[in-house]
């Protein structure tokens, strides 16, 4: 999966709609959860940090985790240019998330994950007691968003199904909302934000 992202890392942020989408998810996150200077965050599938780097000044630490090393390099370069200290973790499967974290974020990464249960289990294990998750991704769609692709395993998600899967892995206080919309291929797609707490 990382090949396409490896090749796209350098130019990833040039697409305005990606930047706008990340800003929309950030706004929804800030409205849904309180971020504080004593929090340690993990961004799972961080890419170039479009979603999480703007949150870095609000918390104690930010770790970006991704399967693509070039994406992580751009993430680090952007942080350095902003004078922000971050950590990175090169993901291979669900091993090595580190932690404990007070919040694990993920935006537009889950649809690239074949099996979600092991990821949710790994996130649950990486969270401190009472730690929270904030997961943003596409609502169910017909495949128009990506078109034919060998690294997309879910055509969006039904929110209720995803919340039930999270509950099975020990998360509670699960809440969902529409985070933002994204225009692509002449259509409007909605993104949800699901938050929850480690049980």
If you had to describe this structure to a student in words, what would you say it looks like?
The longest helix has 17 residues, at 16-32. The chain is of the alpha/beta class and 199 residues long. A hairpin with a 2-residue loop joins β6 and β7 (187-198). It contains five helices and seven strands, in the order ααββαββαβαββ. The protein has a seven-stranded mixed beta sheet, with helices on both faces.
Oligomer: single chain
The low-confidence runs, each spanning 5 or more residues with pLDDT under 50, are: none
Q: Please tell me what the overall shape is.
A: globular
Mean of residue pLDDT values: 91
Distance between the termini: 32 Å
Query: Secondary-structure element sequence?
Result: HHEEHEEHEHEE
Major beta sheet summary = 7 strands, mixed
Taking Cα atoms only, what radius of gyration do you get, to the nearest Å?
Answer: 15 Å
- Number of helical elements: 5
Task: Provide the β-strand percentage band.
Answer: 25-35%
- Record the strand order, biggest sheet: 3-2-1-4-5-7-6
According to DSSP, the number of beta strands is 7
Percentage of residues assigned to helices: 25-40%
Category from helices, strands and their pairing: alpha/beta
């Amino acid at each position: 999966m990382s090949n396409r992202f490896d090749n796209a890392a350098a130019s990833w942020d040039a697409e305005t709609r990606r930047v706008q989408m990340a800003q929309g998810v950030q706004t929804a996150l800030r409205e849904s959860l309180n971020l504080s200077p004593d929090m340690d965050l993990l961004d799972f599938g961080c890419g170039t940090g479009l979603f999480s780097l703007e949150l870095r000044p609000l918390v104690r630490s930010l770790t970006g985790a991704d399967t693509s090393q070039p994406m992580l390099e751009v993430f680090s370069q952007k942080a350095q240019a902003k004078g922000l200290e971050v950590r990175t973790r090169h993901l291979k499967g669900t091993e090595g998330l580190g932690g404990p974290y007070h919040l694990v974020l993920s935006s537009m990464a889950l649809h690239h994950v074949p099996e979600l249960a092991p990821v949710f289990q790994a996130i649950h294990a990486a969270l401190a007691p009472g730690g929270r998750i904030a997961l943003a991704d596409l609502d169910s769609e017909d495949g128009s968003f990506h078109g034919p692709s060998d690294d997309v395993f879910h055509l969006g998600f039904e929110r209720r199904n995803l919340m039930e899967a999270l509950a099975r892995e020990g998360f509670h206080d699960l809440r969902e909302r529409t985070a933002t919309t994204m225009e692509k291929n002449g259509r409007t797609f909605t993104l949800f934000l699901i938050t929850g707490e480690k049980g």
